[in-house]
Amino acid sequence: MFTQNRLLRVEFFAKGNVLIASDIKGRIHKFDLELNLLQSSPALSYNRPINSLCLSDKYVFTKDRWGAIGKWDIETLAPLDFYDETYICDQDKLFEDEEPSPSPNRGIVCLNGRLYTNNGYAQIVVLDIESFEVLDIFDSPSKTFLDCICVGNPEIHALSDVEGSLFIGNLETKEFPVHVRVDTATVHGVVYDKRHDRFWTTQDGGLGDYQLVRTGVTTVEKDGSNLKEFPISHEDNEFIQFDSECKTLYAGSFSGNLFVFDNENKEFELKRIIGPLDFQISHAVVVSDNQIYALLQTGELIHLNEKGQEVNRINYINKCAWTFEPHPEDDSLVYVGTDEGVCLLRYDSGLYGTVHIEQIDKHVHGLGIVKDIKPLPDGSYVGIARKGIVFKADKTGTILWYRQILGIPRSIALDIEFSKCMISSDNGTISELNTENGDLIDTINVDGPSYACAYAIDGRRVVTSTKNQLVYVFPSDSHDPLGTIKFTRRLKRLNRGRNGELFVTGANGFIELDIDNFCEKKHFEEGLITGKENGVAFNGFVYVGGYGYQLATYQYIDEELVDLEENLLDFVKGFTARVPNNGNPILLVGGRGGYINVYRLHDGIPQKVREFYIR
Q1: Gene3D superfamilies, alphabetically (predicted)?
Q2: What is the tens place of the pLDDT at every residue in 229-258?
């Protein structure tokens, strides 16, 4: 069974013994437990990603990323009623000219005949489930968006937000006297433990010495006391659920693993680990020990048995464009890392102001997802695959050498002479290889997972570490750092610009580094929400995108935001730009789903010309 749009959330409807899932285009779908598609809702004018999903006996309730709240018939999936995001708010408490903010938050729940959720202004909206009339709108205890609302205890409720806070109190009285910091980033999941009368939560960032190095689950008493952590990953943990008796707890991670805890006793007891699966777990449903449905961020929904064996799956044909790398001597030729391997694109000016773009080749290596590549002048390229492989292929895609490394490789960089490549990995090892034969030249170890690396023009080696969120600058021939640049949040990519500039991308934004004085030089972040993934500096402007489905345009000289597109198809991953022989400059922006938006740049502002898809 195939789905055409990436699934975002999944819930189990026990009365109908079916799964209900939402997708990136504002639709919902119904599957039986064998993962046969039974029904899909029609397409609506509200066609934006649905991250918030909950069920009652008769209805499906949704909230999209802009804050539009919807009601659907659970038997037929027919749309019934929708509130636009703009006006479902307490306007007396808004700033002048304030507009809804897009957010992937998931906070929504049914309780005693009422629906509670965030609106687009981070207020809490209360709706009658039957009439769908607004009953109340009140201030959230959080200053930001809620990502989970837990009502497993009918009297004492727990709300978590995107900044690591847990608020314990009661939705109906609107009082939350207990505030606990359980994380330094988004707390995606909270569940009530009726066996031990406490709450469990997930973590994205971790606390103290563990911050951005080891993340996991926490337990906390109802009064906010006795906070305990158990690390299970170094990445986001997106899912948490008990069995019906709270004997077993399941937690899912971006590591691709599902962690199963024995909760008979109060102390943490990790019983088994299922995985790693093909990619990151973004959500899941546990119907029974033998019916585990894991939703991957790629959009695939997989039925696993208690041993972690795959029983069945819904295949989403994922064609993510992970990165765009122009040939070093011909910038009209672009190498694209994909889920299958590498695609080669050619783009240039077309007739009447259009843009010509075509896929001229496709290399499938059998190594799985190729997240980063770097081409050499002869048309060959080095790349990294998620399975832990670094490889080199010639211009036809034939593999010339490959090497297994420790951990999952996160980025690869080339020096300016194309003789050395450097690979960062999530186990904190930086490997430097000879590009000719793959021989190991050097190894550097940093304190935490390293997501990005780059060579400076003069050969200095620049690498990130999530331990203390540092960028290290090493000489070309020594392990003694010349200096570090400190950040506050996770760093994801390092890019060398056309003139040798170095840019780091992460939750803090798209930032130009001064590696001589070990400080920030330029900072581009305004208008962007959630994770920032990548960007490019080009012709006096900077273009940045990420997990907010956004494309932001800034003036380089003063860092001013001059344009913001907010409804891209899916997550943004790759950027490249060039000046063709005739016509305005061209910008390519692509990402999850295999889309490539093709823009002409008019005074630096992107004007979309085409939407191309990799094959």
Answers
A1: YVTN repeat-like/Quinoprotein amine dehydrogenase
A2: 999 998 899 999 999 999 999 999 999 999
Query: In the 8-state DSSP scheme, what is residue 209?
Result: G
Instruction: Find the mean pLDDT for residues 21-32.
Output: 97
Residue 1 has a pLDDT of: 62
Relative to beta strand 69-73, strand 79-83 is antiparallel
Give CATH 2.40.128 domain extents, the chain.
Answer: 319-377+532-578+587-615
Give pTM, 2 decimals: 0.94
Q: What residues does 440 pair with on adjacent strands?
A: 433
Would residue 593 be called left, alpha or beta, if left means φ above 0 and alpha means ψ between -120 and 50 degrees? left
> How far is 388 from 403, CA to CA, in rounded Å?
8
Q: Where in the chain is the domain with CATH 2.130.10.10?
A: 405-524
Q: Where are the beta strands (DSSP E) in 547-585?
A: 551-555, 561-565, 572-578
Domain 319-377+532-578+587-615, CATH 2.40.128 — does that match? yes
328-354 residue pLDDT tens: 999 999 999 999 999 999 999 999 999
Predicted confidence (pLDDT) per residue in 306-320, tens digit: 999 999 999 778 889
Task: Write the burial class of residue 37 (CB in 10 Å: 0-12 exposed, 13-18 middle, 19+ buried).
Answer: middle
Rounded to whole angstroms, how far apart are CA atoms 519 and 530? 24
Burial 289-319 (b: 16+ CB within 10 A, else e): eeebbbbbbbbbbbbbeeebeeeebbebebb
**How high is the pLDDT of residue 458?**
97
Cβ pair 373, 337 in contact under 8 A: yes
**Which range among 277-281, 455-459, 502-506 shows the weakest confidence by mean pLDDT?**
277-281
For 224-245, b/e burial (b = at least 16 CB within 10 A) is: beeeebbebbbbbbbbbbbeee
**Amino acid letter at 387?**
K
Helix ranges (H only) for 82-237 are none
Asked if 149 contacts 172 with a C-beta cutoff of 8 angstroms, the reply is: no
408 within 8 A of 423, measured Cβ to Cβ:
no
The Cβ of residue 479 has, within 10 Å, a number of other Cβ atoms equal to: 14
288: how many CB neighbours lie within 10 A of its CB? 11
Cβ neighbours for 504, distance < 8 A, ≥ 6 positions apart: 452, 464, 471, 487, 491, 493, 494, 510, 511, 513
Q: Does domain 405-524 have CATH number 2.130.10.10?
A: yes
Please tell me the distance from the alpha carbon of residue 326 to that of residue 335, in angstroms, as a whole number.
6
Q: Is the peptide bond before 276 cis (omega within 30 degrees of 0)?
A: yes
pLDDT, one tens digit per residue, over 89-103 is 999 999 999 999 999
